[in-house]
Amino acid sequence: MMRFNDIKREAGFVFAHRQFKLTLLVVFLLSTAALWSGHAEMQAQQATIERLLEKDTQEREAVLNHQSSYGMVAYYAFHLTYAPPSPLAFAVVGERDVFPWKHRVRMLALEGQIYESDTDNPELAFLGRFDFAFVVSVLLPLFIILLLYDLKAKEREARRFDLLNVTARNSHAVWTSRTLVTLVPLALVTLLPFVAFAIVNGASVSSILLACVIVLGTISVWSAIVLAIGAAQRFAKYSATHLASLMLGVWLITTVIVPVTGHTVINAAVETPEGGDIVLTQREAVNGAWDKPVEETWEKFIETHPQWADYTAYDPKRDGSFNWKWYFAFQQVGDESASELSNAYQQSTIRKNQLAGYVSLLSPSLLTQRLLSNTASTNVQSMIDYENKVRAFHASLREFYYQQLFAAPEFSKSSLKRLPQFTTTSQFTTPMNTQENTNEK
Amino acid sequence: MIDQTIKTICAEQWRYWLRTKVATTVLILGSVLTLAALVINTFHIEEAAHAREHLQGEAEQRFLSQPDKHPHRMVHYGHYVFRTPTPLSVIEPGVDTYTGNAIFLEGHRQNSAMFAQQRQSAGLTRFSSLTPSFLALVLAPLFIILIGYGSVSREREAGTLTLLLTQGASRWQLVLGKLVALMLASSIFLLPLLLACLYVAFSNESALVVTLFCLGYALYFLLWAVVVTACSTLFEKSSASFTVLIVIWMSACILLPRMGSSVATSVEPSIGKLEADFKVEEKLRSLGDGHDVNDPAFVKLKQDLLDKYNVDSVDDLPVNFRGIVAQYSEQRQAVVINEFAETRMQEELAQARIARQFGWLSPTVALRSFSTLLAGTSIETHHRFLREAEILRMQFVQGLNKVHVEKLDYKLDMNRNSSEEAAHKAVVEASNWAVLSEFSFEPEAPMARLSSAAMYCLQLLLWVGVAVLLLKLAVRRLNP
């Protein structure tokens, strides 16, 4: 049994080492630096969204004042959509630097717009992010190895090993309490800055607790690995540094080799349509429509929008000098022609993500990274949810404009007040292709 | 002539490594990994190169085979360009998977590159990737450490160091023997890389670039071998040498590159494309809508033209006024768009340069900059791709506008929306689509790449210098 006195004695021993105190300081600084840089970045993203929102309203007002038909408004008015960073995103930038989190869309074919990406500097993304999740999932295991690998060897070399075993009431308790007095301060210097930043960012208590549990889980798993290798009978004759090499080998295999092998296998196994094919198909359909008889477009359009079957006739008096109804109808048909490919593309992203989830069960680092980004909603699924939100918003725009283009007696500026607005919380009408996606979740 | 004593010490060290499991496992693991990475990456890049060349040809074919149309419709039909990977991306793919490699070119808009592969990796390759450069830059140093951390300190701990030195080996001979042994071991990881370079050299890459590329990696491996041997000589105990080396590796290979990236983001914030788009639009609104000949912004243009041809109305002009407006506004718009695009590229470049300054703190960053610049997989080459795409865009869009001006009758053009029949009359012949020229992307000329990489070569040489000084210090302090 461990007693308070044992722990106090061990703490005295452990803290007497300058190396230990130095390690704690380094971990504390790394954790704080990572959190600060993530925090600054999320603040910047939030500020960007606010600036964009302001500009977006101004720009749209200008268009609405300038134009005098629904067709022209629909053609020229852009709408900003965005996915704001969650309160915990500062700790896990996750997929936010490769997936877009802001788009401007208009009534034209969506497939031509949604793959536009306004992501960060690719060279910086390639060098990698220094965020809290990285510190915890990649660096922390290395620090645990460095702190624990010569736990016993150090005492043997200092010729205190036998003394310790003899003088303690229970020789097991010595090593348990020594491990604890090493790991608890390590966990504290990692987590305290995190909790402070999380409170500043207004994260919910439950999400903070969850993230802390994940970090503590990581520390426990790696300590268990290190201690198991250290205690294994097979390696009893190995020197401390040989044991450490073995531990690094485990780190290397789980952190590097498992993920890259998984990536290679998953890429070979899951068939993904060429992204270029989606936009090419959509473009051919949209541009081809100009050369085809108008009826052909209407036929396809009515298949999915039977409610407008009686409104397709072009009346220059009501519709203006250009047949905007038909124009937007073939934009819709263009999207539909590419929807199968586009669905398959999204499905393959989801499928790959799912398989990556299984791979992560073999890699504690990957698992930590994924769990943390789930908690912070910066995972692949959140980014896909955002994409689907954009699709749903676009569908609601279409619904609104079709109503005006087909049925409104004449152009009236006041009706534009009912123009759908993108909000991050509200639900839009379900577009055609989100059905399968919700099944996947 | 290699000194006989050095040779013996080196051979003895190898005998020891082959006896111990750790060293042999690391050697085998390292070379298998490098080979696997090379094979997989080569296949991947060749496949991508092939696919993109094919897509490029197909896109050109589709454009040219469009039927007779209104020329402005071809402006909106647009065109695709693809960036083919450079030969050395077999070893250093760089930003390739992060940028997207296709751009849709159309009139009135400058689109960004689409379909970055990184999105399809579900975070698996965010820390590590199975590319030869990652293995060489990050993992190889770890392997070298695991093999060599105890080469000298082990002798001291076993008490054989005194024996060796009293038997007549000088301190330099001893340390050099150990260093040569470690260099030989690390060359096992380097060898597959050199072979791959040889393969690249036979494709269309400048021999000078490939040679320097190889030299960069060789220097990097040498550097680590020297540092590891120096630490092993400096520290009394193997465990101390091990701990210090692992800490050096963590900071140089893992921590500092990322620190550089984060610092660059906060020091030199860059506004995104969306925000720049707003600024472009604000400025453009004052320039007029190129679709609308009655826009007040074109009044002066109209008057000048009427004066020039000495006629009273646009109907009497020998050229198509709508085409003139399109041409004129596209040109003015392009100036604004490119002004902002250029600013954005400069910002990205400034960020990348800040991140590269971390090469003074970490040799890994230095070699990364050096090798991406030489391989043509850095942000500079991507920007070059964007610029060339823009040149092509303006070329075919303005080419089509010229056709619009010269070959389409103004009255037919103005009448095009009145009926389907009228629309069919307002077209030009498909032979005019030949204004599109072929696109094949090439990285910067070898000399240009070499000169931009020179600074990072300097960083690398500085690190070699520091390592050699460290070794000198270690030898001077070597006492049994």
Record keyword descriptors for this entry.
heterodimer; A: 441 residues; mainly alpha; 17 helices; 2 strands; B: 480 residues; 3-stranded antiparallel β-sheet; 18 helices; elongated
Ends distance of chain A: 47 Å
Q: Tell me how many strands of chain B there are.
A: 3
Strand order of the largest sheet of chain B: 1-2-3
Query: Helical segment tally of chain B?
Result: 18
Which structural class matches the secondary elements of chain A? Answer: mainly alpha
> Percent of residues of chain B in helical segments?
over 70%
Uncertain segments of chain B are: none
**Largest sheet of chain A at a glance?**
2 strands, antiparallel
**Regions with little confidence, pLDDT below 50 for 5+ residues of chain A:** 429-441
Quaternary structure annotation = heterodimer
Report the count of strand segments of chain A.
2
Strand order of the largest sheet of chain A: 1-2
State the share of residues found in helices of chain A, binned by percent: 55-70%
Tell me the Rg of chain A in angstroms.
29 Å
Shape assignment of chain A: elongated
The structure class of chain B reads: mainly alpha
